[in-house]
Amino acid sequence: MRASCGSDDTPVAFAAALGGLDTLVFAGGIGENSPPVRSRICNGLKFLGIEIEEERNAAKEGVISAKSGRVVVRVIRTDEESMIATTVCRVLGLGMAS
């Protein structure tokens, strides 16, 4: 958990290159299903204007950002298995997966 939350500077580099953030999206696996990880990441990015409502985060709501924050923080449900199957079928020329 520490490597994925505390020492990776990639989100900060992206934010700097973009001149800040309007929206931060958590999706799939850990991003979608782990309120503690989302909280830890967002707490480390407060300097970007990210603030979350811990109650909304714990309830896995679609928008977990605080109204006072400058950045909208969203949690998006994904169907990773379906996306992988669709991509594999496209690459192999098998048509759409059902």
Give an overview of the whole structure.
It contains six helices and two strands. The chain has one domain: ATPase, nucleotide binding domain (Nucleotidyltransferase, domain 5), CATH 3.30.420.40. Helices cover 47% and strands 10% of the residues. The longest helix is centred in the C-terminal third of the chain and has 12 residues, at 80-91. The protein has 98 residues and is mainly alpha-helical. It has a two-stranded parallel ribbon with strand order 1-2.
Number of domains: 1
Strand content: 5-15%
CATH evolutionary superfamily: ATPase, nucleotide binding domain
Oligomer: single chain
Overall mean confidence score, pLDDT: 86
Query: If you consult CATH, what is the topology?
Result: Nucleotidyltransferase, domain 5
Describe the protein's topology.
Blueprint (H helix, E strand, L loop, with lengths): L1 H4 L4 H9 L4 E5 H6 L1 H10 L9 H5 L13 E5 L3 H12 L7
Parallel strand pairs: 1-2
In a nutshell, what does this entry contain?
The protein is mostly helical and 98 residues long. Helices cover 47% and strands 10% of the residues. A two-stranded parallel sheet has the order 1-2.
Name the descriptors.
single chain; 98 residues; mainly alpha; Nucleotidyltransferase, domain 5; two-stranded parallel sheet; globular
